[in-house]
Amino acid sequence: xxxxxxxxxxxxxxxxxxxxxQHRVEYERTLTQAALHGPYGGVVPGLAIRxxxxxxxxxxxxxxxxxxxxxxxxxxxxHGPGLVGCLGIGVAYAQxxxxxxxxxxxxxxxxxxxxxxPFLELFQADADFNWNAYCPHLGLLVSGGNTLLFEMPSVGQxxxxxxxxxxxxxEALDKGAKMLGFPYPGGALIEHCxxxxxxxxxxxxxxxxxxSDLRFSFSGLKTSLRVFLDKLSADEVEQHKADICAAxxxxxxxxxxxxxxxxxxxxxxxxxxLSGGVANNSVLRNRLQQVAExxxxxxxxxxxxYCGDNAAMIAFSSAQVSAELALNPxxxxxxxx
Length: 337
Ligand code: AMP
Ligand code: MG
Known about the structure:
By secondary structure, the protein is of the alpha/beta class. The protein has helices spanning 34-37, 45-66, 84-101, 110-125, 169-179, 187-194, 219-231, 234-239, 241-266, 282-294, 312-327, and strands at residues 2-7, 12-19, 24-32, 74-80, 105-109, 137-142, 147-152, 159-164, 215-216, 271-275, 299-300. It folds into two domains: 2-130 and 304-327, Nucleotidyltransferase, domain 5 (2-Layer Sandwich); 135-297, Nucleotidyltransferase, domain 5, CATH 3.30.420.40.
């Protein structure tokens, strides 16, 4: 089976094809709008919608010329969560492709795509890949719009254990970066600048430190940076920018890894996953690697190309959940008609 996926939940327009027999991504293209939104300090929905319209036209036109579309067995599309207008463009293109190709159309939850993205490469590398070796799985999904800890008892079953009550981790990094004068999205720039800094130079607060409290919160952290910066002169901020970046990033990484440890100490998991755009962060990856080693389980992360939004994870997720659906009729997969 070949699954053609479309993704347009935020500011990436992407198409990809997953081949279930060959266990591989057969085709993928992603257009990013970061440069377009950068000057506004965040994603502007109206601009994003126009760009997705142009982007899908361009991507499907080039797919049509380089790939025999009659080989496609199913079309799948991210149908949420995300920016409604942006999702609508993807769904409309997917419906048109479904009519053209006369194949089933599946709606895929964007978060399920991210949640399964750490397994995509493992699956490609091992023809005998077995989900039982990794499940029950604990996953940390950290992106610009979402921060959640979930458990996956078996593939395609997701239980949310913890989520943010306000800002997402990526959002806190981006807003902090903006206060420090970096362009949007500034998460990676905070990491880069913080490399030469002292993470202990100042201590920013961590929310909900108690063991039984499975909530994340990052808006207080953002406010504490604002208050701290207001007390410094412009020269002091410039002089200690690397230290401030390192300490701010440390507060985010510490809060995330602390909750992961809490959950690992309470349950019995065979693997720990990290996904979403913030999974690009090396400090977070290294910290979770140490945590996983402490519990004697593998840390699974996507390569950097599959951390941010992409269509390969949507095609892969749809194929995995569909395969499981055939075995377990209690699982649900939304079908857009
Ligand atoms: P997504 O929403 O999954 O597309 O991820 C985008 C988010 O990931 C944005 O908030 C980025 O700032 C953040 N991000 C990307 N690279 C890094 C990095 N190296 N360190 C921290 N955050 C990052
Ligand atoms: Mg995303």
